[in-house]
């Protein structure tokens, strides 16, 4: 699979220096996280990241602040596969709202309905 991003959506929100929450399901090879120095599992992750998106006349620009947001391992695997990816997307739906609420609470963000 060429693209490790399986699912991505933007949820309109307002907060300090952001206007959207980016929700993604992606595959990661795992290994050492050089920011936390912890070993991370290989598998499929769900992430929710506050972003500032703007239209720059024909293309979208997206700004993030390192360290903002959260991610959760939804399916640990030994190798990437289409079946595991489909299962990960289904599993991510169960955690999506909890992660969105967590990011909103910790970052002072409000989702725009």
Gross morphology: globular
Number of strands: 8
The whole-number mean of residue pLDDT values reads: 92
Derived from helix and strand composition plus strand pairing, the structural class reads alpha+beta
Give the C-alpha Rg.
Answer: 15 Å
**Number of helix segments?**
1
User: Segments where pLDDT lies below 50 for 5+ residues?
Assistant: none
Order of helices and strands: EEEEEEEHE
Instruction: State which percent range the strand residues make up.
Output: over 45%
* Cα distance spanning the termini: 34 Å
Helix content: 10-25%
Largest sheet: 6 strands, antiparallel
How many distinct domains? Answer: 1
Describe, in plain words, how this protein is organized in 3D:
This protein has one helix and eight strands. It is of the alpha+beta class and 113 residues long. It has one domain. Strand 5 and strand 6 form a beta hairpin. The longest helix is centred in the C-terminal third of the chain and has 26 residues, at 82-107. The relative contact order is 0.25.
Primary descriptors:
8 strands; 113 residues; two-stranded antiparallel sheet; alpha+beta
Describe the secondary-structure layout:
Blueprint: E1 5-15, E2 18-28, E3 31-33, E4 38-40, E5 43-55, E6 60-63, E7 70-76, H1 82-107, E8 110-111
Task: Offer a concise description of the structure.
The protein has 113 residues and is an alpha+beta fold. The protein contains one helix and eight strands; from the N terminus they run E-E-E-E-E-E-E-H-E.
């Amino acid at each position: 699979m060429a693209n490790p991003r399986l699912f991505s959506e933007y949820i309109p929100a307002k907060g300090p220096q952001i206007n959207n929450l980016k929700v993604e399901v992606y595959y990661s090879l795992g290994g050492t996280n050089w920011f936390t120095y912890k070993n991370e599992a290989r598998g499929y992750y769900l992430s929710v990241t506050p972003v500032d998106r703007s239209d720059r006349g024909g293309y979208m620009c997206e700004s993030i602040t390192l360290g903002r947001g959260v991610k959760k391992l939804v399916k640990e695997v030994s190798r990437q596969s289409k079946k595991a990816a489909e299962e990960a997307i289904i599993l991510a739906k169960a955690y999506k709202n909890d992660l969105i609420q967590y990011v909103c609470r910790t970052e002072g963000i409000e989702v725009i309905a």
